[in-house]
């Protein structure tokens, strides 16, 4: 994992944040890197990650984003409870015969019947529903007794109060609007987006006889009054406490409604639902990530991960770093695309150039926004200005003197014998293998660095990117673009 | 400590695989099952393993009193392990007193400073070090070794598993012959 999620090499997202390539997306339409923070996040669907039931968003809201059938362990708060069966002997009665689920087997005595009963247990911490006094249930899918909350009624009155306040406000606003619109014109303009609905028009035209509905008043609530709090009991200072009986902060937070103090009140909690999320580029409003709808599927319908479009840079090895002494660093660059890439390594832009880039980006975006303002269903995106990269370079990098080509990715090439190309490669290229290339550059850490300071280098990598032919007619042919990625590398620490 | 005299007593009906490493004076009571490549090392004194224990692969039971331990002066300390204990794969137990019906989950570690009563569960990967006594029905779990008390008896009766192992293990492994001290000495 360390190797896969290495943070030594970071790319600059268009918004100016530094991220490892694995955390970045690539918008095919803007041809730019996008990160978690500069994209729209949308909830696609709700599902329970334990039973994998798909729950429509409306129903999820009704269920308070919790699964009806699955429970989380309240004790260790990290695993789901599973139902376990026990067999008990019960005297045979009519009730059991009719109400049982056919699981009972007639015992040999004729009088006793063994019956399966279920309880919930956690496999990680051995918590069981019997611990808190929940009796065993006759069926696995039985609705387990719901916990009652002290303040449930109070919460409901407050909730209802605010619902009525919202309703009241809405009515006031509507009335205000109606009054104003009648002044302007007698005939409502259908195309005008004033929010006039059919009933309002009918009322204006005098069709609706029951127009004078009584105004709803917010239901009153009794404000809560602070009670006098008793002093702490004397023994709290003198008696030793048994930590095993007191809940941890985390255990209390998983039950926000009653926040139990004693482990005796740790009831099984309904499992929170998970979401499938799609991620959308803020600039062009195309999806960069869209998962498949089915909760059991882990695939994507759209997946624009940067690691499959942008060449990946990794450190192979680096010499010992000493201030003012040049050292060699070996980098591996991998071409993830199906087209050959021409790569040029250049200096990073200076601060002024960076500011200009940001300015230009904003102008471009504003222009695009005014052009594409045609009946977009989406609200216009709020775009934050890109920021200046916060990372400071602490070493001088000797740039390679020429561009180089990295072959396309070829999944079958792995099985081929190594074929050496006839072309003479420049000296800084150590080796090439299929779609990978290793280059060796020399770096000189700055003089003012001390022992254990990080040595940061950075460069701009220009690469050619061939767009994937899409179905739209104007983009049928692959187009070649010259793109640029800014890369910051932490080469290591200064040693003495 | 270089050469331990092996005095292994296997009571009848115990299933002890020959590929297990048993060193020192070890008594295995009837009904217990010891898997191949389990280790039982009686360095500082005899070990007596109670009835119906399961000691799984790569589990280590070590009777080794460190020199700074309070029991270090005591001669002939016997490590008595109660009945119905389960030592899961890769657990290491150095405790000098172990009661009954305990479960040592995978990769757990119990140091020699700890005494264990009955009905305790040491969760997977939990390291219990530092001088302490685990009262009955203690459950230790999670990466921070959180403790709780199981109010309900930890249900795990492993009788079914024992019956199965007693049936299956002899089909695939050589077993140590029960109650034959001379033979055991020859083996080493
Ligand atoms: Zn970003
Ligand atoms: Zn569920
Ligand atoms: Zn749990
Ligand atoms: Zn875009």
Automatic annotation (TrEMBL), chain A:
Keywords: Acetylation, Coiled coil, Cytoplasm, Cytoskeleton, Isopeptide bond, Phosphoprotein, Ubl conjugation. Residues 173-192 are annotated as: Disordered. It comes from the Eukaryota. GO terms for cellular component: cell cortex; centrosome; dynactin complex; myofibril; stress fiber. Its main location: cytoplasm. Pfam families: Dynactin_p62 (PF05502). It is found in: Cytoplasm, Cell cortex; Cytoplasm, Cytoskeleton, Microtubule organizing center, Centrosome; Cytoplasm, Cytoskeleton, Stress fiber; Cytoplasm, Myofibril. Subunit of dynactin, a multiprotein complex part of a tripartite complex with dynein and a adapter, such as BICDL1, BICD2 or HOOK3. The dynactin complex is built around ACTR1A/ACTB filament and consists of an actin-related filament composed of a shoulder domain, a pointed end and a barbed end. Its length is defined by its flexible shoulder domain. The soulder is composed of 2 DCTN1 subunits, 4 DCTN2 and 2 DCTN3. The 4 DCNT2 (via N-terminus) bind the ACTR1A filament and act as molecular rulers to determine the length. The pointed end is important for binding dynein-dynactin cargo adapters. PANTHER family: DYNACTIN P62 SUBUNIT, DYNACTIN SUBUNIT 4. Belongs to the dynactin subunit 4 family. This is Dynactin subunit 4. It comes from Polypedilum vanderplanki.
TrEMBL record, chain B:
The keyword Cytoplasm applies. One of its GO terms (molecular function) is dynein complex binding. One of its GO terms (cellular component) is dynactin complex. Belongs to the dynactin subunits 5/6 family. Dynactin subunit 6 subfamily. It is found in: Cytoplasm, Cytoskeleton. It comes from the Eukaryota. InterPro entries: DCTN6, Trimer_LpxA-like_sf. This is Dynactin subunit 6. Part of the dynactin complex that activates the molecular motor dynein for ultra-processive transport along microtubules. Keywords: Cytoplasm, Cytoskeleton. One of its GO terms (biological process) is mitotic spindle organization.
């Amino acid at each position: 994992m360390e190797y896969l999620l290495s943070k030594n090499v970071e790319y600059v997202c268009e918004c100016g944040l530094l991220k490892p390539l694995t955390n970045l997306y690539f918008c095919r339409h803007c041809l730019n890197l996008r990160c978690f923070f500069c994209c729209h996040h949308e909830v696609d669907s709700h599902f329970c990650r334990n039973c994998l039931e798909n729950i429509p968003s409306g129903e999820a809201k009704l269920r308070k984003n919790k699964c009806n059938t699955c429970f989380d362990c309240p004790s260790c708060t990290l695993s789901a409870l599973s139902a376990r069966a026990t067999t008990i002997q019960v005297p045979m009665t009519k009730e059991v015969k009719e109400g049982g689920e056919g699981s009972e087997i007639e015992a040999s005595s004729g009088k006793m019947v063994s019956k399966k009963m279920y309880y919930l247990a956690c496999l990680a911490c051995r918590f069981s529903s019997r611990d808190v006094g929940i009796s065993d249930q006759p069926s696995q899918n039985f609705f387990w007794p719901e916990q009652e909350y002290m303040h449930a009624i109070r919460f409901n009155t407050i909730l209802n109060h605010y619902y009525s306040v919202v309703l009241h406000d809405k009515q006031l606003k509507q009335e205000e609007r109606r009054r104003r619109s009648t002044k302007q014109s007698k005939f409502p303009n259908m195309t005008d987006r004033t929010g006039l609905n059919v009933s309002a028009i009918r009322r204006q035209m005098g069709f609706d006889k029951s127009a004078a509905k009584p105004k709803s008043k917010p239901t009153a609530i009794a404000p809560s009054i602070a009670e006098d709090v008793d002093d702490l009991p004397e023994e709290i200072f003198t008696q030793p406490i048994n930590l095993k009986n007191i809940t941890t902060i985390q255990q209390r937070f998983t039950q926000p409604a009653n926040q139990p103090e004693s482990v005796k009140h740790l009831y099984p909690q309904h499992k929170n639902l998970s979401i499938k999320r799609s991620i959308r580029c803020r600039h062009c409003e195309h999806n960069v990530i869209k998962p498949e709808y089915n909760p059991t599927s882990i695939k994507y319908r759209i997946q624009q991960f940067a690691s499959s479009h942008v060449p990946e840079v990794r450190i192979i090895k680096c010499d010992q770093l000493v201030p003012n002494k040049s050292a060699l660093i070996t980098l591996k660059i991998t071409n993830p695309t199906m087209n050959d890439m021409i790569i040029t390594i250049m200096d990073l832009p200076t601060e002024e150039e960076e500011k200009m880039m940001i300015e230009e980006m904003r102008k471009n975006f504003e222009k695009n926004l005014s052009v594409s303002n045609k009946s977009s269903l989406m609200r216009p995106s709020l775009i934050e200005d890109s920021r200046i990269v916060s990372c400071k370079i602490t070493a001088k990098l000797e740039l390679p003197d020429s561009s180089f080509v990295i072959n396309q990715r070829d999944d079958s090439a792995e099985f081929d014998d190594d074929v050496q190309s006839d072309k003479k490669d420049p000296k800084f290229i150590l080796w090439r293998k299929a779609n990978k290339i290793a280059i060796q550059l020399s770096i000189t850490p700055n003089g003012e660095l001390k022992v254990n300071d990080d040595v940061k280098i950075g460069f701009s990598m220009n690469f050619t990117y061939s767009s994937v032919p899409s179905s739209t007619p104007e983009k049928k042919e692959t187009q070649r673009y010259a793109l640029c990625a800014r890369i910051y590398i932490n080469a290591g620490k200064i040693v003495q | 400590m270089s050469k331990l005299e092996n005095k292994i007593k296997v009571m009848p009906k115990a299933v002890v695989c020959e590929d297990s490493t048993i060193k020192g004076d070890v008594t295995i009571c009837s009904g217990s099952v010891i898997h191949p490549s389990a280790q039982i090392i009686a360095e500082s004194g005899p070990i007596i393993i109670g009835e119906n224990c399961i000691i799984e692969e790569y589990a280590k039971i070590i009777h080794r009193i460190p020199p700074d331990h309070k029991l270090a002066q005591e001669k002939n300390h016997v490590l008595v392990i109660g009945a119905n204990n389960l030592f899961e794969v890769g657990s290491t137990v150095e405790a000098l007193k172990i009661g009954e019906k305990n479960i040592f989950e995978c990769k757990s570690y119990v140091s020699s400073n700890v005494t264990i009563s009955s009905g305790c569960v040491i969760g997977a990967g939990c390291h219990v070090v530092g001088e302490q006594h685990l009262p009955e029905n203690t459950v230790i779990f999670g990466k921070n070794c959180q403790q709780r008390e199981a109010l309900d008896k930890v249900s795990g009766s492993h009788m079914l598993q024992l019956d199965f192992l007693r049936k299956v293990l002899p089909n695939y492994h050589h077993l140590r012959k029960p109650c034959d001290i001379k033979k055991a000495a020859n083996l080493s």
